Amino acid sequence: MTTLKNDTFLRALLRHPTEYTPTWLMRQAGRYLPEYCATRARAGSFLNLCKSPTLATEVTLQPLARYNLDAAILFSDILTVPDAMGLGLYFAEGEGPKFERPLREEWAIRDLRAPDPHDHLRYVIDAVAEIRKALDGSVPLIGFSGSPFTLACYMIEGEGSDSYTQVKKLMYARPDLMHHILEVTTQAVTDYLNAQIEAGAQAVMVFDSWGGMLSQAAYLEFSLPYMARIMAGLTREREGRQVPRIVFTKGGGLWLEHIANCGCDAVGLDWTIDIGDARRRVGDQVALQGNMDPSILLTTPEAVTTEAERILASYGHGSGHVFNLGHGISQFTPPENVAALVDTVRAKSRAYHG
């Protein structure tokens, strides 16, 4: 077992004392980096990039070579799970992900099965192992999955949506079928994340990207309970260390107390909630991750620095904060603005620790 040289991120997630506030960024390996674009061009397509452990390792490490980040996150896509379920994932040029066989018929929903991650998602598990080896203990590796509800949205709609009409029609007219999809997907996600942990992931995150479009009653029925089941089913310790668990519902600030009770170690926040208010609401129950508006990174280094300092001050003194964006980084972000963010948090956060 390689000794971890920088475990600040893991300690912050468990609310242990740290010397500074650790930073990583959602979608930190992405199109804003010219080196990523070059690797993706070599791969020929986004799916080819995801399905090559060697290329996935290459792009995972790229932002770490540029910036003083405190964690790496597996380069993959949340839709690998429904693809492994046989729905036929493909990417239409300029239109985003789509599925050839969305779940619209009752027989297809009843036939849905959780895939074996060591078989149908072997390329992801191999990538985790390869990335972990390449990191050589420099920083921890984050594994991830989409939430059951978010995956179900794509599986039913067949693509992204603004209204999620098909999802809501099924949810309200045939809740039994919706729950069946969510139960199978919950098992799939639990197995998938445990396989990532077994392969070397040292923390895991569940992205509930679309939970925030639900009513409170629907969120508490169709999204949060299934994430709680995943939290309860995850491997808690590996290589003599606790494996922290992060849950992120975009637009979930109204339900922060409920999310904090789901069994996770940390709650991810989008930019619509003040992190200081969030801390007051949950106390010392969980760590908080977030929550700069990624659009600020499109401006100037000075504006980025000012906003980073404001968020640090809002959270205040003590551990339990992992600095991140409120959602994924934009492809149009100037790389020098990311440098300003990472350097500011590393330097200025020390005043809030110790």
Task: State the gist of this model.
The protein has 354 residues and is of the alpha/beta class. The protein is built from 17 helices and eleven strands.
Topology:
Layout: H1 8-13, H2 34-43, H3 46-50, H4 53-66, E1 72-73, H5 80-87, E2 89-92, E3 96-99, H6 106-110, H7 117-120, H8 122-135, E4 141-146, H9 148-157, H10 165-173, H11 175-199, E5 203-208, H12 216-222, H13 224-233, E6 237-238, E7 241-242, E8 245-249, H14 256-260, E9 266-268, H15 275-282, E10 287-292, H16 301-315, E11 321-325, H17 335-348
Helix pairs in contact: 2-4, 4-8, 9-11, 10-11, 11-13, 15-16, 16-17
Q: Give the end-to-end Cα distance, rounded to a whole number of Å.
A: 30 Å
The dominant shape is globular
Gyration radius, in Å: 19 Å
The fraction of residues in strands falls at 5-15%
For the structure shown, list the relevant keywords:
TIM Barrel, 354 residues, globular, two-stranded antiparallel ribbon, seven-stranded parallel beta sheet, alpha/beta, 48% helix
Describe this structure in words.
- By secondary structure, this protein is α/β, with parallel strands linked by helices.
- It has a single domain, classed as TIM Barrel (Alpha-Beta Barrel), CATH 3.20.20.210.
- The chain is 48% helix and 13% strand.
- The chain has 17 helices and 11 strands.
- It has a 7-stranded parallel β-sheet.
- A hairpin with a 3-residue loop joins strand 2 (89-92) and strand 3 (96-99).
- Helix 4 runs parallel beside helix 8 (122-135), helix 10 (165-173) packs across helix 11 and helix 11 runs parallel beside helix 13.
- It is globular and about 60 Å long.
- It starts with 7 loop residues before the first helix and ends in a 6-residue tail after the last helix.
- 49% of the residues are buried.
